[in-house]
Structure prediction request, 368 residues.
Amino acid sequence: MIKLHDKYFKPFLSEVQILDAVKSIAEKIASDYKDEIPVFVGVLNGAFMFVSDFLKEYQYPCEVSFVKLSSYQGLTSTGIVETLLDPPDNLKGRSVIILEDIIDSGRTLKELVHLFNNTNVKEYKIASLFYKSTIYNGEYAIDYVGIDIPDKFIVGYGLDYNELGRNLREVYQLNQKHMINLVLFGKPGAGKGTQAEFLKDKYNLKHISTGDVFRYNIKNGTELGTLAKSYMDQGDLVPDEVTIKMLQDEVEKNPEASGFIFDGFPRTTEQAKALDTFLVTKSMKIDATIALDADDEVLIQRLLERGKVSGRTDDQDESKIRNRFEEYNEKTAPLQEYYEGQGKFHSVNGIGAIEDITHRLGKVIEEL
Ligand code: AMP
Prediction:
């Protein structure tokens, strides 16, 4: 077992297993490309070690280069990929093979495809040393794969956890014995977001607020934002299929998390069931759902106050607030019974000083 920052990792793939996989990719690519001079393009930072060992195994003429995507990976509104290091500009008419260390959900791959679609290469192929087939979205074909691995957070052989671990010769996987996952439950204004901010630091958890993710998307004018906006403006719930997909993406973006606080999700029985099913596929589960209790008139006043500073239009209009409460009573309240049925439902008094409420929540969490 090794420790990097705050987390423990256990051995997963040996150096021999990795080098065998590298060699077999090199042999396959050689048999397809030995009659021309391909350009290998490594994706920094993670792929540097793979690229180096790969080239030692590739016995024919070739060129090598690198790209680096920005850490705010994503397409701009004009469909351009943000890069820190661009593809070389002499790729015209060449066969390019992109060397990736790992493909998981496929998000980075999508950026790469956009990037190389804008070049005038003859063709480009994708080779990935590691591949998480169980979570890959399948959008593009992956031409050469080294090792199919389960959906575990890994480090070593170029891959990092917050920049540590890249220099390991072997691959390690996160030891996730102590994970806690919480649902914060309660009406709009109950203080879920405020409390989540404290709890996430105290228990080292990742806070996912579906409302915040939607607002972020609206602000950035994404497709998801446009879709959600009309519902949110009225205080209606965004449709389940949209919200569930988004939540799953958020969880998958944080494979190294030592637990999650779900804030504002689930809000319907469908979402709760989908969450349970999804977590099973990750060997995870909800440990507790904790409700913050407060009465409606207090909450309405809180929301109207918040609306003056937050700029949230759904907080500024009492009829929209009342509609959010109706949505809650009709669609979200039944979840209490759902979680009681699983023996996971707890509630604390949500009225009082912020730190007193944090303390009440902490007591529930520490007894889990
Ligand atoms: P919140 O920030 O949690 O108050 O959420 C603001 C708005 O985002 C809600 O009124 C809904 O329109 C939308 N929203 C947030 N979470 C969900 C969810 N789990 N399901 C459906 N809509 C949601």
